[in-house]
Amino acid sequence: MSSLESLNTHNFHHVLEEVSGVSLVFFTHTLCSSCRAWKQLLQTYSASHPAIRIFEVDAETEMALTNEFEVFHLPALFLYKDGRYHAPLQSMASLEAIDQAITHLFSKPAEELP
Predict the structure, then answer these.
(1) Domain layout of the chain by residue ranges
(2) In this model, does residue 37 exceed pLDDT 50?
(3) Which of 36, 58, 63, 101 could form a disulfide with 91 if both were Cys (CB 3.0 to 4.6 A apart)?
(4) Cα–Cα distance for residue pair 79/52, rounded to 1 Å
(5) How many angstroms separate the first and last alpha carbons of the chain?
(6) CATH superfamily label, 5-106
(7) How far apart, in whole angstroms, are the C-alpha atoms of residue 15 and residue 6?
């Protein structure tokens, strides 16, 4: 099973700016049971969608990013395309629902960073 790539305050913007195509940023915390379930789902999603890069941010240790993205509830997902922020991603926890949410968000104009 594929693992998620970790991001932190020091490499977050630089790494995402370099990514072409679609990326998901997943804010999580080790004590969050929903986050653990989503992490497993995203690892499965990553394995079946190798063109989509999925990054993980520990919301507790990376408080500057957590505040920057106005994350109040975990897990939180954000969609990027070609290194640019597109929108927050809200979805039911299923592979099909994630695909549908991404397609729906890309049918709309990109939003500004929070």
Answers:
(1) 5-106
(2) yes
(3) 101
(4) 10
(5) 32
(6) Glutaredoxin (3.40.30.10)
(7) 10
